[in-house]
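[job 0417] fold request received: Ion-translocating oxidoreductase complex subunit E
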Amino acid sequence: MNRFENFKAGLIKDNPVFSLFLGICSTLAITTTVNNAIGMGVSVIIVLIMSNVIISCVRKITPDEIRIPVYIVIIATLVKIIQMLIQAYAPSLNTSLGVFIPLIVVNCIILGRAEAFASKNGILDSALDGLGMGLGYTLAVLSMSFIRELISTGGIKVVNPFNEAQVWLNLHIIPENFTISIFGSSVGAFITFAVLAAAVGAYKQHVTAKEEAAAKEEK
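[job 0417] inference complete; emitting structure tokens
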């Protein structure tokens, strides 16, 4: 698999949320609004890329016996830096995401890519892998939050995380009488996740069937 294919795999084929079912806890919890999804998605992308690069750099000098604790320390350090920056410059986002920012440390996506990929590959490949998986996670939480916020509130509102008075997007699509508030709760999170996961699974099966049919025709 070349670099581009490896990068692209994280978006759909090996999407960390809908295909590998990693990071489900934070995905279900923070996808009540698009604002939350953007903040968490960007944070995960940054931590994934930086942790993959650092772990790729130290992989040859890290003893196998202590590699997991070393990875966790690296990831925890990066997450703490991100958390401090969010607290300083985007306090409203910090309040919305709450405990799920520090919990990025134990997110299976980040530790999984560190162990499965960054510890075995070069710096550039690891950085691209982190970017691909991070974008895949962000795509997943954005799609879930868009559906949940739209159905539960009737619209989508995105504000500048550094200045709440600045509204970037404010759409009202569904009349208030037709909104379904349950989609703002955990029940709505599970329903949305199940539908999107099924859709991704069906799409992957369709692509696989087409590839198999094409391979048979070539023979």
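[job 0417] notes: Helices lie at 3-9, 24-30, 34-58, 67-89, 91-97, 108-116, 123-153, 186-218. The chain has one domain: 3-215.
[job 0417] exit 0
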